Amino acid sequence: MDQLEQKKRLLVSIIKFLQDELNKSDLTEEKKESVEVAIQCLETAYDTSGIKEENVVDLLSLIPSTSVKEVTDQQKLEAEKFKNEGNAAIKNDQYSEALYFYTKAIDINPHNAVYYCNRAAVYSKLEKHMEAIKDCKEAIKLDPTYGKAYSRIGIAYSNLNMFEEAKKAYKMALQHDPNNPMYESNLKLAEERLAQSQSDGGLGQLPVDVSQFFNNPALIGMATQMLNDPGFRNVGHTLANRMNEVDPSFMDSLRRSMNQPQPQQDDSNPSGDSKKPDEPQS
């Protein structure tokens, strides 16, 4: 279909929409007259011949629906039940189960910011920090004053060594919950890590989450076997010396990154109640 044919199809579709409005809408006589004039102007200004009716596009069907899913009181109760089961699971370090329950709660009632924030906490425990950030952003869309969601974004960014973003998130958390000592502590830590990274020319922080290595038993076992291999130790020693020759600050930066304190987790309240951040939600 060439450009002229596309224009004709669009114009005929607009005219069809306006004609439907004349027949269906509760327009006043004055407004109907205006719509009729608009149709006449389009038909006069453009050649719309040759377009078959089956090629007319329903313009309204192209507009995405913005309707909000209605949640009944019964569904809200069911979602709360799943949320509470998720809370119990996360307290028992059953993170896969908690993820399942919070996801069920969200599926039933996608309008509750607490559910997204709770699931974000589980994602952080599972070292899935980008998923945690995504869920926190969804929670903030639903409740822009949700300090805990900003805090958990900060924790996720800190775990990804993205300290500039973490700093901004902690500041937002404090803006909505200014008397929270944990947010203040984590903000200070993010600022310290950011300053250290900048002083190291960006080498102070590894581009990966080191905690993923230390929390993975399989990787720890593999590393232990490699370190017990005399041949590997010789290669590793040579590689370390070579890296130190290229950049003498690298090994110091590596050691500092591995020994850095981690941001405090706000696990005392798995319910993530946006109104009472230090108390479990009933």
Automatic annotation (TrEMBL):
<feature type="repeat" description="TPR">
    <location>
        <begin position="113"/>
        <end position="146"/>
    </location>
</feature>
<dbReference type="GO" id="GO:0072380">
    <property type="term" value="C:TRC complex"/>
</dbReference>
<protein>
    <recommendedName>
        <fullName>SGTA homodimerisation domain-containing protein</fullName>
    </recommendedName>
</protein>
<dbReference type="GO" id="GO:0016020">
    <property type="term" value="C:membrane"/>
</dbReference>
<dbReference type="Pfam" id="PF07719">
    <property type="entry name" value="TPR_2"/>
</dbReference>
<feature type="compositionally biased region" description="Low complexity">
    <location>
        <begin position="259"/>
        <end position="272"/>
    </location>
</feature>
<dbReference type="GO" id="GO:0006620">
    <property type="term" value="P:post-translational protein targeting to endoplasmic reticulum membrane"/>
</dbReference>
<feature type="repeat" description="TPR">
    <location>
        <begin position="147"/>
        <end position="180"/>
    </location>
</feature>
<dbReference type="InterPro" id="IPR047150">
    <property type="entry name" value="SGT"/>
</dbReference>
<dbReference type="Pfam" id="PF00515">
    <property type="entry name" value="TPR_1"/>
</dbReference>
<dbReference type="Pfam" id="PF16546">
    <property type="entry name" value="SGTA_dimer"/>
</dbReference>
<dbReference type="InterPro" id="IPR019734">
    <property type="entry name" value="TPR_rpt"/>
</dbReference>
<dbReference type="InterPro" id="IPR032374">
    <property type="entry name" value="SGTA_dimer"/>
</dbReference>
<keyword id="KW-0802">TPR repeat</keyword>
<feature type="compositionally biased region" description="Basic and acidic residues">
    <location>
        <begin position="273"/>
        <end position="282"/>
    </location>
</feature>
<dbReference type="InterPro" id="IPR013105">
    <property type="entry name" value="TPR_2"/>
</dbReference>
<dbReference type="GO" id="GO:0060090">
    <property type="term" value="F:molecular adaptor activity"/>
</dbReference>
<feature type="domain" description="SGTA homodimerisation">
    <location>
        <begin position="7"/>
        <end position="56"/>
    </location>
</feature>
<feature type="repeat" description="TPR">
    <location>
        <begin position="79"/>
        <end position="112"/>
    </location>
</feature>
<keyword id="KW-0677">Repeat</keyword>
<feature type="region of interest" description="Disordered">
    <location>
        <begin position="250"/>
        <end position="282"/>
    </location>
</feature>
<dbReference type="InterPro" id="IPR011990">
    <property type="entry name" value="TPR-like_helical_dom_sf"/>
</dbReference>
<comment type="similarity">
    <text>Belongs to the SGT family.</text>
</comment>
